[in-house]
Amino acid sequence: MAAALRRDIATRAASLPRPPGLAVLLVGDDPASHVYVRNKIRACQEAGIKSFESRLDARTTQAEVEAEIKAFNDNPAIDGILLQLPLPGHLDAQRLIQAIDPGKDVDGLTLRNIGALVSGMPGLVPCTPQGALILIKTVREDLSGLHAVVIGRSLLFGKPMGQLLLNADCTVTQAHSKTRNLPEICRSADILIAAAGRPEMVRGDWIKPGAIVIDVGINRRENGTLCGDVAFDEAVLVAGALTPVPGGVGPMTIACLLKNTLEAAASSPRPHEILLK
Ligand code: NAP
Questions:
Q1: Is the pTM of this model over 0.90?
Q2: How many domains does the chain have?
Q3: CB of 153 closer than 6 A to ligand 1?
Q4: Which of 4, 13, 155, 194 could form an SS bridge with 229, CB 3.0 to 4.6 Å?
């Protein structure tokens, strides 16, 4: 799915008068973030999206990061801005996210884009939940009336995922660390989405037979290998459809980042449109 989406984006990007531009801003030296940024930049190159990269020292001040974001906002060759999270602890992440021009906010985290999602208006939708929804819809197009359980309520994933499913007419249960009887709630889910960041927490007997299970978690086991929030070997015997980790939601997140960049480029005023104003 991710490869097909990336191919489609490459074709559409090539038809624009100039290549879409994505700026990636990385502050500090979190090793996982460096790997994610490298993968995103490679995916951009393959899709004909021009990448602009800014790697700042872990001691960079709030004002310096804000100035970098402002420069990206003002650069007409840049259509999308991605501020790689997490940020070093001394930085106010929310203030920096809100400094991004909402029209270039390809992570969909500014108040305007969150508001658009909640009110069902056009806007840039966060990449990971958007990718998860595309995967769910490959299994079942009409989600109306289905019970969806989302484990997690973060701003980055859980909340927008719940909202997207609500917009698709699901009945949504948003679970979190204070939820009681989680296994029982999960057993009633037609769609189960795990994004708690707890290795293999969701067991096979938490899953309703035939359910669509989306595993968002990325966890590192003690032996260094990756696993999700779902015990894959157990879940695969019960679920109707199940995403693996790695190789499931992750590639879709990157494909949706490119999709958002393309959409931001397509809706930003072209030079001739500016002249006509
Ligand atoms: P987060 O901000 O840490 O949020 C985790 C959420 O899970 C919180 O709402 C928390 O509840 C809930 N939770 C934690 N332990 C729980 C438990 N035992 N039972 C029920 N709920 C529990 O994490 P995030 O940013 O949403 O990411 C979640 C996972 O997805 C992480 O593993 C992350 O690496 C992965 N991720 C993957 C991608 C991708 O592209 N594949 C993208 C984003 C995130 P409280 O609110 O009560 O604390």
A1: yes
A2: 2
A3: yes
A4: 194
Known catalytic membership, residue 84: yes
Same domain, yes or no, for 240 and 255? no
Which pLDDT belongs to residue 272?
Answer: 41
175 and 70 both lie in a single domain: no
Does the pLDDT value for residue 271 go beyond 70? no
CATH number for the domain spanning 148: value is 3.40.50.720
- What range does the domain containing 231 cover? 127-246
d(CA 11, ligand 1 centre) in Å: 34
178 lines ligand 1 (CB under 6 A): yes
Per-residue H/E/C for 151-212? ECCCCCCHHHHHHHHHHCCCEEEEECCCCCCHHHHHHCCCEEEECCCCCCCECHHHCCCCCE
Cα 145 to chain centroid distance, Å, stands at: 25
- Give the residue among 57, 184, 163 at the shortest CA–CA distance from 119: 163
Q: State whether 21 and 85 are in the same domain.
A: yes
Question: Looking at residue 194, what is its pLDDT?
Answer: 98
Is residue 174 annotated as part of the catalytic site, yes or no? no
Binning pLDDT at 50, 70 and 90, where does residue 81 land? very high
